[in-house]
Amino acid sequence: MLKKFALLLLFSTLLACSSDDNANTVSNGEKVLIKRMTTTGPDFEGSSVTEYDYENEKLTTISDRFSIATFSYEGDKITSIDVENLIGQYQGEINHIYFFYNGNQLASTIVTSDFYKTAYSFQNNLLVSEITSLSESPNILISSKDYSYINGNAVSMMDNVFLYDENPLPYSKTDYTFDTKNNMTRDFSPYMKQAIFTGLPYVKSGLSKNNILTEKKIDLTENRVTYTEYRYEYVYNAKDFPIEVKKFNVTTNTLLTITAIEYL
What we know:
By secondary structure, the protein is mainly beta. It has 3 helices and 16 strands. A hairpin with a 2-residue loop joins strand 6 (about 95-100) and strand 7 (about 105-110). The protein is globular.
């Protein structure tokens, strides 16, 4: 179930949507917030629809046909996300993600389903590293990620794993390029952005100011180097927010997904 939630959050920060400004963007005169995201493509049976609900501009739920994630707050800070599986063998099962802060900055999260704890480090309000360990044995390290930024965009992400000692072993490196338009999460609160990226296993695009144009992953495992590369084509509304994105495999020049987004 957690994988389904991670996938749901992946679309919420990476992909974008629709093509008609009047039909898909209704300005509330204040913040621009995601309302609905619809993805089609070879990997989907029909389409995948993700709904976003808010109360006083705070995310309350994110849902799709697989799961519903419910957010709890203390003031503006998100304290937990409860993720309920809606279908399949584990229907009705609820997993929990708990959030802990150092002042106003996210310090760590604990996911109860896999007993992992992830600690986060920031510089100038930008996430620069995260380290995952066993929640009950924090000295047993599992993996880490390191980020580099240019102009407020995360242009590279290094994945590392820990095997038999405390020295991280490089696992993969992903490089990104960006457009100059508004990231669809621009008007999310810092706490909402932090909650979104903690659910992402791959791309932390919600941390960036703009939208990803290219993604090149270099696999460094098993003494070999392999490459996976994607490119993204966007349609924007009058406010320079993405309303449609097409994802392509660069090697095969194959269209993988088309995602449309509606805003409040």
